[in-house]
Design goal:
Length: 189
């Protein structure tokens, strides 16, 4: 999700809810369904690109890198039935953070260590993809998230500086961890 500054846990008043049933339409047609589909444990491969870097290092490839990671995402049920809810995001080895969405197209992230709560906007496109937009200090970050299958999620993020030049970009492919079904006749030990 949008690289909001990590902060303290914001899940104190809203308990996580299990993911939506598999009977839900695919791709999701509303934000609440999209957020529920995001819930789960994910294995991620992310490629990072420094688009505005003009100098190359000794290897000539310092402008990009790749990293693997794990991510646990929980759906946060909205306090009001007309609101879409939110997400509690816990990257392995990093503090968890939350994103809370409103029905008017806005979202806010959990307060960062600096005490600020980044705010942005969202749009669910007809193709079922979700676009998040966050502006801070003249820099705009846009992230697009979409599912090709219920257990395969893709994300692309692009940062634009105040002068319009590109900053960083990333592309992630994420696979949901699923439990293998027990073999017929198998018993637990």
């Amino acid at each position: 999700m949008v690289d909001a500054s990590p902060g303290a846990s914001a899940a104190a008043s809203t308990p996580p809810v299990p993911a939506a049933s598999t009977d839900a339409p695919f791709p999701p047609t509303d934000l609440a369904a999209f957020l529920q589909l995001c819930a789960g444990e994910w294995m991620s491969l992310r490629s990072l690109f420094g688009l505005g870097q003009l100098e190359e290092g000794a290897n000539g490839d310092e402008w990009h890198s790749s990293e693997r990671g794990e991510l646990v995402v929980a759906y946060l049920k909205a306090e009001h039935p007309a609101e879409p809810g939110g997400l509690l995001i816990a990257p392995k080895g990093h503090p968890e953070r939350s994103l809370v969405f409103d029905r008017q197209g806005g979202f806010r992230a959990a307060p960062a260590a600096t005490g600020t709560s980044p705010e942005g906007s969202w749009q669910l496109w007809p193709d079922g993809s979700l676009e998040l937009r966050l502006e801070s200090g003249g820099t705009e970050v846009r992230e697009r998230i979409w599912f090709t299958k219920p257990n395969l999620r893709l994300r692309s993020t692009v940062e634009h500086r105040a002068d319009g030049s590109p900053g960083r970009a990333s592309f992630s492919s994420e696979i949901r961890r699923v439990s293998r079904a027990a073999a017929p006749g198998a018993s637990a030990a």
